[in-house]
Amino acid sequence: MLLKEYRICMPLSVKEYRIGQLYMIAKHSLEQSEKGQGVEVIANKPCHDPKHGDGQYTEKRIHLSKFSIAIETAYEDNPGTTENCINLEDDDLAKREIVHIDIVHDQYPDKHYKKEEDPKNFQSKKTNRGPISEKNWRETHQPIMCSYKVVKVFFEVWGFQTRVEQYVHSCIQEILLVGHRQAYAWIDEWVGMTMEDLRKYEKDMHDCTNRKVLEDTEIAPNEGAAL
């Protein structure tokens, strides 16, 4: 098993982040369906945690016979300074590798890059936040919050375990970087939304995605006749 704890700071409050993250997921699902790409959504399982409170701690799990991914997430209004935010046991702490993901300065995949979504260029019209260029922005910016994600990847096939687990983590790290950067860059689209507004937006995007998938899979009356 390869265990990493990702710490992703955002120039938001936890309250804002909850809306922005859900908005980003809903918008992403529609964009991917419009590009003709498959979309797999792994729903958050909200959990009650006395330390973090309802809605500030989630779990995700994928389990197959020889492959599993487990993700535990907690959110706090700080710059990633809590030593053991998710209360890992000693065995897991000994295995843990901490990875800080910097949405401003980390190398960003060229295929996803958009100048207007680069925090070094972006300035929010509604909140007046940004651009962000300081190397130490996580220590100086207000508001600031951190998403703590403990990710456990296990692949039980001798000879391939290490390479597969490392590859899965590299994919997860890229997804986290892209998703969080976009959630911030789209702040003017979602800031001020209530949870009720967000749920309506999610439903609308879900309906649009379903319509798009159905349109793409429908076969015209004579299509395929030459096959």
UniProtKB/TrEMBL annotation:
<feature type="region of interest" description="Disordered">
    <location>
        <begin position="114"/>
        <end position="134"/>
    </location>
</feature>
<protein>
    <submittedName>
        <fullName>DgyrCDS13878</fullName>
    </submittedName>
</protein>
<dbReference type="GO" id="GO:0035091">
    <property type="term" value="F:phosphatidylinositol binding"/>
</dbReference>
<dbReference type="InterPro" id="IPR055261">
    <property type="entry name" value="PI_transfer_N"/>
</dbReference>
<dbReference type="Pfam" id="PF02121">
    <property type="entry name" value="IP_trans"/>
</dbReference>
<dbReference type="InterPro" id="IPR023393">
    <property type="entry name" value="START-like_dom_sf"/>
</dbReference>
<dbReference type="GO" id="GO:0005737">
    <property type="term" value="C:cytoplasm"/>
</dbReference>
<dbReference type="GO" id="GO:0008526">
    <property type="term" value="F:phosphatidylinositol transfer activity"/>
</dbReference>
<feature type="domain" description="Phosphatidylinositol transfer protein N-terminal">
    <location>
        <begin position="65"/>
        <end position="206"/>
    </location>
</feature>
<dbReference type="InterPro" id="IPR001666">
    <property type="entry name" value="PI_transfer"/>
</dbReference>
